[in-house]
């Protein structure tokens, strides 16, 4: 079997019990199955939830806290307990875990995004098992990833994983919540996420998790858009993850085999960058960008808005509204003097050959 890079996301409900304790049996089952994948030569990154769920009881809360400070305090205790357990149990398989705690800011700042990528690559190259969670204790609510399902999708795109496996307390996506409807039917394979699937996943999740099935579908949609296939389900025993990679896992497979991976520049521009200005383009430029995969030249721009620097991300507005985003190769001041001009007229001492405003490799359609 071809060696794969796999991101495994484990939800709170698959690591802890409702009393707010780590479930050692559930944990050791996951650990044994990850150890098998690594032994077979696959690269694994683990995205582990469970910090709040494993910590709240130790702080005297009767159930998962709802206040921000309560969740942050519980996560501070629970995260250390989780890692302590991971280190202890993985050592039986000679696997060394590395803890990585991320916030939204770490993705939106370009240098941090690149650093996260390089660190993950270095860890994988050295056979270490990265264990990622959101940095709950410092995350401000509006700046979180939403939940760890989304974090795992973004990580799987960042590292160009071959497969994202979302392990949860249910064996896949059903047409309605099986906890409410005993006749609900499971989907074994779906090509992508539609309104119908979203509707069926509306019901809330477990007492210890956050987003329920809906947040997994939103995350799956993001992973697919980044070229990563997804599996949502469960299973037990040390063979469960390898069975999933072999195509007979207990759950739902999402995405066709021939997905296109998106380069990191495009991922960053599309999902994490902040727009600093707007470029208004004529019909010819719009067609060139949208239909011919061309770069944007000054001649097609008739108006600019905002103050931006070379290297910033701007949105592009066509006849029908916003059509995409890209990284500009000119500051707004420089651009002002060349918009609407033919490329020959734009070349000057400072830019003897460069006339491209947004290069096609740093452009994403919306
Ligand atoms: N259509 C559906 N198919 C499967 N599960 C669903 C559906 N709608 C809602 N759910 C619920 O989603 C839950 C899983 O979400 P959640 O508890 O957040 O998991 P985790 O803690 O693993 O992230 C399931 O236990 C189930 O009750
Ligand atoms: N960072 C939080 C994750 C919460 C979360 O997304 O939980 P889940 O829905 O179980 O994946 C924690 O570790 O408790």
TrEMBL record:
One of its GO terms (cellular component) is cytosol. GO terms for molecular function: ATP binding; glutamate 5-kinase activity; RNA binding. InterPro entries: AceGlu_kinase-like_sf (IPR036393), Asp/Glu/Uridylate_kinase (IPR001048), G5K_ProB (IPR041739), Glu/AcGlu_kinase (IPR001057), Glu_5kinase (IPR011529), Glu_5kinase/COase_Synthase (IPR005715), Glutamate_5-kinase_CS (IPR019797), PUA (IPR002478). Its main location: cytoplasm. Residues 277-348 form the PUA domain. This is Glutamate 5-kinase. SUPFAM superfamilies: Carbamate kinase-like, PUA domain-like. It is found in: Cytoplasm. The gene is proB. Keywords: Amino-acid biosynthesis, ATP-binding, Cytoplasm, Kinase, Nucleotide-binding, Proline biosynthesis, Transferase. Belongs to the glutamate 5-kinase family.
């Amino acid at each position: 079997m071809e060696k794969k890079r796999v991101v495994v996301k484990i939800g709170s409900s698959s690591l802890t019990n409702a009393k707010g304790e780590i479930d050692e049996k559930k944990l050791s089952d996951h650990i044994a199955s990850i150890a098998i994948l690594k032994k077979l030569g696959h690269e694994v990154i683990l995205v582990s939830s469970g910090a709040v769920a494993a910590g709240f009881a130790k702080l005297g809360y009767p159930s998962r806290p709802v206040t921000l400070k309560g969740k942050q305090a519980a996560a501070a205790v629970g995260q250390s307990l989780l890692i302590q357990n991971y280190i202890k149990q993985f050592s039986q398989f000679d696997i060394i875990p590395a803890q990585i705690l991320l916030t939204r800011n770490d993705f939106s700042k370009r240098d941090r995004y690149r650093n996260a990528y390089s660190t993950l690559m270095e860890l994988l190259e050295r056979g270490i098992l990265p264990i990622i969670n959101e940095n709950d204790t410092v995350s401000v609510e509006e700046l979180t990833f939403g939940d760890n399902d989304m974090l795992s999708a973004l990580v799987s795109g960042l590292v160009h994983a071959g497969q994202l496996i979302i392990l949860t307390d249910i064996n896949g996506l059903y047409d309605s919540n099986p906890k409410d409807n005993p006749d609900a039917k499971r989907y074994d394979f779906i090509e992508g996420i539609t309104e119908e699937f979203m509707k069926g996943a509306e019901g809330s999740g477990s007492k210890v998790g956050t987003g329920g099935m809906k947040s997994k579908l939103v995350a799956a949609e993001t992973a697919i858009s980044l070229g990563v296939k997804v599996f949502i389900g469960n299973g037990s025993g040390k063979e469960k993850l390898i069975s999933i990679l072999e195509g007979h896992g207990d759950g739902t497979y999402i995405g066709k085999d021939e997905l296109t991976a998106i380069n990191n520049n495009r991922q960053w521009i599309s999902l994490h960058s902040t727009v600093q200005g707007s470029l208004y383009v004529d019909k010819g430029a719009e067609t060139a960008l949208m239909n011919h995969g061309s770069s944007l030249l000054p001649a097609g721009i008739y108006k600019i808005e905002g103050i931006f620097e070379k290297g910033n991300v701007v949105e592009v507005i066509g006849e029908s509204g916003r059509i995409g985003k890209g990284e500009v190769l000119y500051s707004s001041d420089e651009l002002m003097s060349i918009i609407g001009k033919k490329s020959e007229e734009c070349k000057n001492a400072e830019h003897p050959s460069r006339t491209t405003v947004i290069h096609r490799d740093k452009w994403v359609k919306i």
